[in-house]
Amino acid sequence: MIGFENVGYAYPGGSPVLDGITFEVSDGEKVGLVGANGAGKSTLLKCVPGLLEASGIITVSGLRVSRENIAEIRRKVGFVLQDPDNQMFMPKVIDDMIFGPVNYGSTREEAEEQADSVLRGLGIPHLRDRYNHRISGGEKRMAAIATVLAMRPDVMLMDEPSSSLDPRNRRALINTLSGLDKTMIIASHDLDMILDLCPRVILLDHGTLIADGETAGILRDRELLESHGLELPLSLSGQKGI
Length: 242
Known about the structure:
Layout: E1 2-10, E2 16-25, E3 30-34, H1 41-47, E4 55-60, E5 63-64, H2 70-76, E6 77-80, H3 93-103, H4 108-122, H5 137-149, E7 155-159, H6 167-178, E8 183-187, H7 191-197, E9 200-205, E10 208-214, H8 215-218, H9 222-227
Parallel strand pairs: 3-8, 3-9, 6-7, 7-8
Antiparallel strand pairs: 1-2, 1-4, 4-5, 9-10
């Protein structure tokens, strides 16, 4: 579904942020992307829909990420940005949720029905007609996630989706995502969420792929995590022998 082959990126005037990243994500696979601040997680996600132009080859459903394919790729890919203020631009939550589907051919009625279904699934139907500038940071994050889900993308990229969420909304988010048969790459410092949600994890450090494998094994490896600026998930930190 998604392929990275020798992918690199450097911001103008800076040193490389990504260096030779190569891996594949299969259809329907949920992959966690972890690493300390500055590891390159957000940069890698932004390269998939062409928000940043990387070197190497990135493919989505067999289509190479390029200028001629970018419109079709962006129809397939939903991206939950790290800052929801960069994603929510309409007056009300419902306006943001129906904007994409309507522009891609759905009727307003169809778009609203799908939006209502997503809001119920996330346990936030009360946000439907709220003004974006009058909701809390956590509520806005949930609304931004709902906006992407309403697009019904084939692929979901999520950058710190649980940030600012209270325990109830965090659990609702995990339950919703775990029930979706979609390809996902989730970049997060919330290692407990990654442990719950993603069978596979990729560890980055300073733009280099350090480890790629079973989540349970990598996130239980205290020495590996600490040598790359991370700590054990809270749910594992008290277990003997870890």
